[in-house]
């Protein structure tokens, strides 16, 4: 019985080893990687001639996000480089932070370079910034002197937004009188008058507070605890609305936001010193009229 177990164990290990098949070598330094670096530099510089030298005449450029849809050939790549050169400032095609290209010499499918690159550029007309990572898989010829193919995986959303920025578009309605503005006012004055429960009733139970003075986003329990600690040494003497709030109903993403500006007159309990603290709130509302996110902008050092 023991011999049978040993034999079965040997056969199991052998079967695992038999499944392995070395299909090539991976390099982090290679002439093929240098070739891709040269292309990226040519793209950065808008050097059409240099790029044309290293792109194979029969190159295929494929969109990896779709079902292998072909964007075009060598001329399409050169046109793309020219487009960046003519329409963008500060163009950069650099390795993504922390990433580096790999050269793969496959036994069965030839030479390939995997390159993780970050595209950065600022559109000359609109000022729209492109800044996003792209994975490009390059196929090379046998001696790694020409690029024969490009498979690109990228987020096209920024290019869509760039297209939108080229035309004037309305994005909703602005109100200076609205029930959501009233909710912000009622919440604020309830809070300064000590009616915390009523103030919190205008917020969703799972609302978040994003205060630029804090290192993390807080929930209701955490913001109340933070404020309680702050008010150990200070109290609110006055709360005054500055200007008037605006309520934005955006078409884009159906966002609903009230922007308001306030002056908190704070009194230090230890010596009666008064300090005026300007605060800006950006309150996002859900469809039921509850605040689900508050972003606060103010200088906490005024009361440290």
How does this model look, in words?
This protein has 2 domains: 21-165, Nuclear Transport Factor 2, Chain: A (Roll); 172-303, Nuclear Transport Factor 2, Chain: A. With 304 residues, the chain is of the alpha+beta class. The longest helix has 17 residues, at 2-18. The mean pLDDT is 92. Helix 2 (31-45) packs antiparallel against helix 3 and helix 2 (31-45) packs across helix 4 (74-87). The protein has helices at residues 2-18, 31-45, 48-54, 74-87, 157-165, 179-192, 196-200, 220-230, and strands at 24-27, 55-63, 69-72, 88-95, 102-106, 110-123, 129-140, 147-154, 172-175, 203-211, 234-241, 246-250, 256-268, 274-285, 291-298. A hairpin with a 5-residue loop joins strand 12 and strand 13. The protein is elongated. Helix content is 30%, strand content 40%. The strands form 2 sheets. Strands 1, 2, 3, 4, 5, 6, 7 and 8 form an 8-stranded mixed β-sheet that branches. Strands 9, 10, 11, 12, 13, 14 and 15 form a 7-stranded mixed β-sheet that branches. It has 8 helices and 15 strands.
In brief, what are we looking at here?
30% of the residues lie in helices and 40% in strands. By secondary structure, it is of the alpha+beta class.
